[in-house]
Amino acid sequence: MERESMEFDVLVVGAGPAGLASAIRLKQLNSELNVCVVEKGSEVGAHILSGAVFETRALDELLPNWQELDAPLKTAVSGDEIYLLKAGGQTKLNNAFVPKTMHNDGNYIISLGNLCRWLAEQAEGLGVEIYPGFAAAELIQDDGIIKGVITGDMGVGHDGEAKEGHMPGMELRAGYTLFAEGCRGHLGKQLIAQFDLDKGKSPQHYGLGIKEVWQAPEGKHQPGLVIHTAGYPLTDHGASGGGFLYHGDDGQILVGLITDLNYDNPHLSPFEEFQRFKTHPQIRQYLEGGERIAYGARAIAKGGLNSLPTMHFPGGLLIGCDAGTLNFAKIKGSHTAMKSGMLAAEVVAESLQGNAAGGLDLTNFTDYFKASWLHDELYCSRNFGPALHKFGTMAGGAFNYIEQNWFGGKLPVTLQDMGFDHDSLQLAANAAKISYPKPDGQVSFDRLSSVFVSNTFHEEDQPCHLRLTDSQIPITVNLAQFAEPAQRYCPAGVYEIVGAQEQQPQLQINFANCVHCKTCDIKDPSQNITWVVPEGGNGPNYPNM
């Protein structure tokens, strides 16, 4: 197939905080560089979802005058509250006994989507070309060197045949390509496997974050209040994770639950656990009488330094959550993603001095990384997740308090968590069944009404972007052994078993519902599902997540 081709000095895949920070820094260092950013969402920010309590450290370095430039950081944190929840009650933890990494003085409650929109404006002002609605579908390689990407074809029918108006994807070639696709990026996943970038590392560990935006009821909004929770509802079923409720801009409340994806009960549903979380009196009081205005979900990579792959390979770099730079001890990844992008820009700009062609394996990125505060942050938080996984919420929390507050994250021991999240499920026959309450329509809801307020759209006459390696495994293995957990771990109702009453069960994939969270690619016990990009511009259209 003949494809149009465009050439750039640097190509950035993904207009999130890492990708946009790298593009801005590149143009700051060398305004002559031809820098392009491609984004699979319909607009910058459409696929961005985060809590988010934002630390400004990287932004202060990148754009020190961000306040003069009217960055969308309006609501400073005014208070931190942490609760240990149990059914019907709670215990408020004294901040003196909370790991200091969870203190939020000087931080802001933001919409990360809106911050990315603003960062895109700053990048374009510097001459960066940004193309939303173009999904990077394939790698371009030459003799083992990454030379760019091919964007997805448009106008291909579900049968794989070209439809009227068919447009082949474009070849976007570059001296260096920076991959900033976010957690479990499908090209990043290929690069890690091809170049063995995770050799000698702990397995990556993940959580599924489900979030809603609410217009607060009258008298309930407290601008700047940050609430984090542990315990209920996840511990009722032997799972771990935590909840959040942030009082943000314009009378809005941001509420969510992160479920660690190492849970072992195949009957557990992270979506239903989130509904239960909102019915707890400590949370419900802020929502009841308000209006839910947005819903979304996204996996997070939380393995930290122990799971961080080598980030360089011939012709490019992995940055941000595509690599896994989130600081789980802070429950924050935006500032670390930005810093990784800025470091990448410095290494690339240095390599391209004097009209060099690029294409090298930028091994000196590791030196830049290890000399940065980003590495120091991730090193000091390396034990946070493994401690919680090994010792549980209480004992693990005590370990983390001691390490963070007494030893500054530098205990002379490194804990490892060597299990894979997809290997953690018990057989369904050995696991306790879970009966979830029906939604009340006031603070708890069903999946389909939730997907509706995610503004998700997919052209239905296109190939399914959720690829099964073996179409029989969902029935012969996953249904038979694990009661097909995809029905429950997917927060958007994509996977459904039909025909069971006729003794002819089949897995139905409702791909049009997909909110691009990547959980199926991560948690499927048979590792039989591969998430690839649909047509560019498809997926959720988050307004201010």
Low-confidence stretches: none
Q: What quaternary form is this?
A: single chain
The largest sheet is: 8 strands, mixed
- How would you sum up the global shape? globular
DSSP strand content? 15-25%
Average pLDDT for all residues: 97
Given helix and strand content, the structural type is alpha+beta
N- and C-termini, Cα separation:
38 Å
* DSSP summary, beta strand count: 24
Over the alpha carbons, how many angstroms does the gyration radius reach?
22 Å
Helix content: 25-40%
- Helix run count: 14
Description:
This protein has helices spanning 17-29, 57-62, 112-125, 186-194, 270-279, 281-287, 334-351, 365-370, 373-380, 384-407, 447-452, 473-482, 486-489, 519-523; strands spanning 5-13, 35-39, 53-54, 75-76, 79-86, 89-92, 108-109, 129-132, 136-142, 145-151, 154-156, 162-167, 171-179, 206-215, 225-231, 241-247, 252-260, 291-301, 312-313, 316-318, 466-468, 495-498, 506-509, 529-531. α1 runs parallel beside α3. By secondary structure, it is an alpha+beta fold. Helix content is 26%, strand content 24%. The longest helix is centred in the last third of the chain and has 24 residues, at 384-407. The protein is built from 14 helices and 24 strands. The mean pLDDT is 97. Strands 1, 2, 8, 9, 10, 13, 19 and 20 form an 8-stranded mixed sheet that branches.
Describe what is shown at a glance.
This protein has 14 helices and 24 strands. With 545 residues, it is of the alpha+beta class. Strand 1, helix 1 (17-29) and strand 2 (35-39) form a beta-alpha-beta unit.
